[in-house]
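P.,

For your records, the input lines for the assembly:
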Amino acid sequence: MMYYLRVWAASARYSLTRAMMFRGDLLVWSLVELFWMGVNLLTISVIYRHTNSVAGWTKYEMMLLVGTSMLIQRFLMGFFWSSLFEMGRNVRSGNFDFTLAQPGNVLFMASTRKLDLDGLMNAVIATAVVVYSVRQLGLHPGPLEIALYVFFILCGIVIHYSVLVLSISMVFWLSSAQGVEGGYFSMTEFSRLPRQAFQGIVSRTLFVYALPVVIVSNAPAATLLHGFNPALTLWLAGSAAVWFTVAIWTFHRGLRRYSSASS
Amino acid sequence: MLRAFDKYRHSFLIGLQGNLIYRWNFAVRGFFSLFHLAVVFILWGAAFAGNDQLGGFSLNQTLTYFVTLVILTFFISAFNEDYQISEDIRNGLINQFLLKPINYFGYRFSIFLAARLVSGALILVPLLVAFPILHSHLTFPTEVWRLAVGLPAMALSAMIQFSIAYCFGMLTFWFLDIQGFVILSMAVESVLGGQMFPLDLLPGWAYGIARYLPFYYQLYFPAAIFTGRISDPNLIAQGFIIQTSWVAILLIVNQALWSRGLRRHTAVGG
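Structure tokens returned:
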């Protein structure tokens, strides 16, 4: 365990040094993340210009939901996105050999090569969106609600990470990962929607119960809005465990198909 | 003239073969766009609950607009042309175009047309699969003139899409990595191109400004013509003038970036 923490810390140091070498790049990428958050908030503002409620959620409740979804996504971007995205390319080019040759768990090594400071910097802004929405709603969450919110965010990161690993692992079966990463973004689009908006039995079964993409942001937001809910807690923690297991299993099944530079 | 055209016909055919190799990737991307449509249907369905109309349009008109956007995206949007151009410059592959009697813009545009033909054909498959669910929500206007006007607008939109991607690709002459600029631009395009919400839902002043920007003509303009969100002949005529102007401006910028970029370019090796 300590060994892996040291490996991760070394990767983080390397990424930090690299980010400082390319400060212009860091600025551009921070703006990219900021702009995309702005796009989501602007969309909410435009929709609420024409209506007062979406599935029973007011404007600031919706902003809290979207802020929570963005917070999870920024952490994922910051910690894992670049490494996993590169893994997709490396499998295709054969450069994945270098990851396989490293002394440690393959998925860990492939997931933690890079740290994106811009994603982590924008996590601060996503937190600000959440805090602003909480204030606008006049909420005063206690220590239990805040602790649960943090725990749910961690579960959310695990779930998003698992969905991303599943999407990228498709590269072991397809000739290129081009377009496949889009699977992750398509799935996470659902996390910006209120659970109550899923009215049809098919959409509710598929996106709320079968896939964890809605509950991942709705559970933490609902905790701040309505307090502790044991069923939600079990649901989210269970989903995180199941999806993480499925992602690891799929990744290792795919890894068997990897045939070095010729794959 | 015909011989010159023949070069680009061959580029188109090579592009067609190259893109057919990645047909499954386009198909997967097309499949994922159904998930995007599901998000749109759920979000806007909830927003319209208790409202007959938002911004003067019904739920089905709004959903039709988003389905049209998906189809247009696969037929005319630039997907990764900017990265391909960037890779050509970084790897020195453009050197061969400097020595041969072929125009690089023309070559890349031929490949772009081939790629969109493949992706456009492939998006029809998931849409046909989803048609039993979609068809009750689709409400296209029946006026034939919309096709006659919308198709040229669509062709000009493709030119704008490709030209913007080409501009970003050209930035590789000055910058090591253009990915940040491209994704930054995608965020702006997604809002001002009407991908997040129909632009007519913006406040009047913001919509007025958007009409003069090139992003408006990337997708929204042809989509609005096809789906009946724009009907005023004066507005459409004005739109065509602005759209054609942007095509001309972008082509000039493309040429300027190519000429100035080549001055910085160093061709190494044989």
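Two observations worth noting. Chain A has one domain: 2-262. Chain A touches chain B at residues 25, 28-29, 31-32, 35-36, 38-39, 42-43, 46-47, 49-51, 53-55, 170, 174-176, 178-180, 182-183, 186-187, 189-190, 192-194, 196-199, 203, 207 (CB under 8 Å).

Regards
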